[in-house]
């Protein structure tokens, strides 16, 4: 079970997660569960330049896809905070809509994400 938590502070955000991934019943490995994108701040005001931070729990390959889609959307936001947030929301909605067409309703992979920029 993954533990992810985010705490908004007066001057930023504290985002934390465990680092153990389970594969099957007996295999475990250490992996980072917090992603940031891009390596340079690209998202502008309301409060300055930011990076996109994402922590996830659930089906690992879908989390990786969500991170990739959200990161691309953040870059496509052209540095404007409101535009970036809209693009991220649109990209995740499109990804989830496409997945729901592929999987039966009782077999959809599950993820939970915390993100901030």
Q: Which whole number gives the mean pLDDT?
A: 79
**How do the strands line up in the largest sheet?**
5-6-7
Largest sheet: 3 strands, antiparallel
Number of helices: 2
Structural class label: alpha+beta
Structural domains: how many: 1
How is this fold's topology laid out?
Layout lengths: L3 E6 L2 E6 L2 E4 L3 E4 L3 E4 L14 E7 L1 H17 L4 H22 L8 E6 L1
Antiparallel strand pairs: 1-2, 3-4, 5-6, 6-7
Helix pairs in contact: 1-2
Question: Brief overview, please?
Answer:
The protein is an alpha+beta fold and 117 residues long. It is built from 2 helices and 7 strands.
Structure explained in plain terms:
The protein has one domain. Helix 1 (60-76) packs antiparallel against helix 2 (81-102). It has helices at residues 60-76, 81-102; strands at 4-9, 12-17, 20-23, 27-30, 34-37, 52-58, 111-116. The chain has 117 residues and is an alpha+beta fold. The protein is globular, with a radius of gyration of 15 Å. A three-stranded antiparallel beta sheet has the order 5-6-7, with helices on one face. Helix content is 33%, strand content 32%.
Identify the notable features of this structure and list them briefly.
117 residues; alpha+beta; two-stranded antiparallel ribbon; 33% helix
């Amino acid at each position: 079970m993954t533990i992810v938590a985010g705490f908004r502070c007066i001057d930023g955000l504290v985002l934390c997660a465990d680092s153990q991934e389970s594969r099957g019943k007996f295999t475990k490995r250490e992996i980072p569960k917090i992603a940031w994108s891009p390596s340079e701040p690209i998202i502008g005001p309301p409060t300055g330049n930011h990076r996109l931070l994402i922590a996830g729990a659930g089906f690992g390959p879908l989390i990786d896809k969500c991170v990739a889609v959200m990161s691309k959307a953040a870059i496509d936001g052209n540095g404007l905070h409101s535009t970036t947030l809209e693009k991220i929301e649109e990209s995740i909605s499109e990804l989830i809509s496409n997945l729901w067409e592929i999987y039966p309703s009782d077999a959809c992979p599950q993820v939970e994400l915390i993100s901030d920029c």
